[in-house]
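Tip: read the tokens left to right.
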């Protein structure tokens, strides 16, 4: 999902809330007009401020109802008519809940006028807000802002109809940047060269094995995969269907970390990291002091890592090695010499199998550094990485560029999400796991993510930290 789409999706929530509150204000003001008073005198004693305070809670309840009706799902192709039906349904449900609450609590509130007009205004204003949001999105698309760069692949006759519709109807949010009759290595290179956002396979003529290979390529390079054909669900965990030029389009996603899932996880990361940094700030200061006493400066070790979509970022850790043995640009000429020494140690004392390494009985680690590594306190500064958005609280382990250079295609699936301070593989064996098993656990996490799963992993992490590790 493009950033502009996500921002518009998030903006829909406060817009709906403002429309509901505006409906409440209009309803209350209308009740005291000459026309309404001529129908019936006001018999209730409810001040404007009290009514607005009550309306805030009712509006929040209606937002929850709207969310349960999937009015905030990240479906760029959802029909406006469907939204209208769901808004009206949601308002009816909200009205029913309010009526039941008033009845069972025996509230002394006698104004059917306010209830009915609030309902009518809510429907009208929320629908108006939805139209405005659609209009804003359409204007942005027509200006070329946020358009999804799409490539069509296939030999079916309908590919031409789809291409024409996408190019002529800019409000759909697409720009066709290429069409190909088949999928090949040359096409893969072309897709990467033109920075493709989506690929739509229009009834391609290849077998299931080739199809799975195409899906894997798209997921590996974070390209949305869509398939114009009958619905199938064996290739991905999450499937959505919508028509395009009269052809049913199936979208396959590898992870629920799209749309609101991504928003929820980011909020979870920010809240948890702030709480940890604030609550454990005395420990942070103590560790800084102990590292300095043990081996001097620098306190923080900066290391290049590969994050989501293969982007490089700088990960922070408390330095646990002697200065002369630390690698990386941070240490200049000394860092280059240390890299050669590390390569020799990896060749002699590596305890891992596969593209990643772990030096057993590492002589470069300081005495206090061993304590830090034993319970992973050296990774404590990575909560700053989480706040910056480079990492997540929970996710696959952060990868070094030289490790990534040895990965096979299957291993690169872990770059679908941000790396984490902890994760499913970290609590399932840490460095004692075979790397293929680690990848399988990370892929399982990516495909079955939920906030509950993040909480379970987070709660289990402290208990895992004190288990003995095979290599330090």
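Filled-in amino acids:
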């Amino acid at each position: 999902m493009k950033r502009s789409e996500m921002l518009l999706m998030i903006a829909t929530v406060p817009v709906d809330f403002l429309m509901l509150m505006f409906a409440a204000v209009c309803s209350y003001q209308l009740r005291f007009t000459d026309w309404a008073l001529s129908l019936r005198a006001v018999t209730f004693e409810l001040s404007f401020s009290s009514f607005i305070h009550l309306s805030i809670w009712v509006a929040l309840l209606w937002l929850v109802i709207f969310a349960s009706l999937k009015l905030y799902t990240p479906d760029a192709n959802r029909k406006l008519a469907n939204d209208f039906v769901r808004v009206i349904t949601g308002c009816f449900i909200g009205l029913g809940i309010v009526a039941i609450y008033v009845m069972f609590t025996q509230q002394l509130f006698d104004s059917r006028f306010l209830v009915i007009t609030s309902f009518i205004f809510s429907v009208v204003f929320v629908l108006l807000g939805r139209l405005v949001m659609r209009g804003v999105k359409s204007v942005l698309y027509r200006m070329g802002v946020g358009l999804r760069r799409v490539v069509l692949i296939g030999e079916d006759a309908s590919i031409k109809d789809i291409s024409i519709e996408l190019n002529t109807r800019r409000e759909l949010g697409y720009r066709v940047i290429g069409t190909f009759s088949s999928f090949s290595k040359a096409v893969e290179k072309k897709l990467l060269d033109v920075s493709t956002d989506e690929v739509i396979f229009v009834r391609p003529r290849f077998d299931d094995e080739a199809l799975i290979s195409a899906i894997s390529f798209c997921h590996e390079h974070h390209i949305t995969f869509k398939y114009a054909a009958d619905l199938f669900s064996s290739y991905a965990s999450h499937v959505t269907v919508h028509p395009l030029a009269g052809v049913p389009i199936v979208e396959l996603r590898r992870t629920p970390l799209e749309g609101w899932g991504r928003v929820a996880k980011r909020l979870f990361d920010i809240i948890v990291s702030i709480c940890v940094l604030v609550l454990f700030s005395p420990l942070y200061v103590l560790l800084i002091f102990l590292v300095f006493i043990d081996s001097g400066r620098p306190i923080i070790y900066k290391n290049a890592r590969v994050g989501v979509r293969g982007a490089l970022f700088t990960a922070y850790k408390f330095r646990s090695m002697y200065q002369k043995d630390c690698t990386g640009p941070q240490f200049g000429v000394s860092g280059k010499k240390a890299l050669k020494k590390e390569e020799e140690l990896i060749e002699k004392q590596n305890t891992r199998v596969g593209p990643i390494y772990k030096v057993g009985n590492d002589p470069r680690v300081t005495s206090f550094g061993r304590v830090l590594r034993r319970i992973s306190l050296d990774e404590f500064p990575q909560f700053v990485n989480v706040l910056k958005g480079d990492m997540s609280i929970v996710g696959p382990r952060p990868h070094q560029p030289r490790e990534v250079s040895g990965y096979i295609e299957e291993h690169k699936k872990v770059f679908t999400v941000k790396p984490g301070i902890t994760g499913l593989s970290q609590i399932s064996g840490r460095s004692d796991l075979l790397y293929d098993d680690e990848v399988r656990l990370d892929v399982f996490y990516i495909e079955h993510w939920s906030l509950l799963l993040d909480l379970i992993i987070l709660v289990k992490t402290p208990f895992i930290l004190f288990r003995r590790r095979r290599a330090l």
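Residues 260-465 form one domain. DSSP finds 16 helices and ten strands in the chain.
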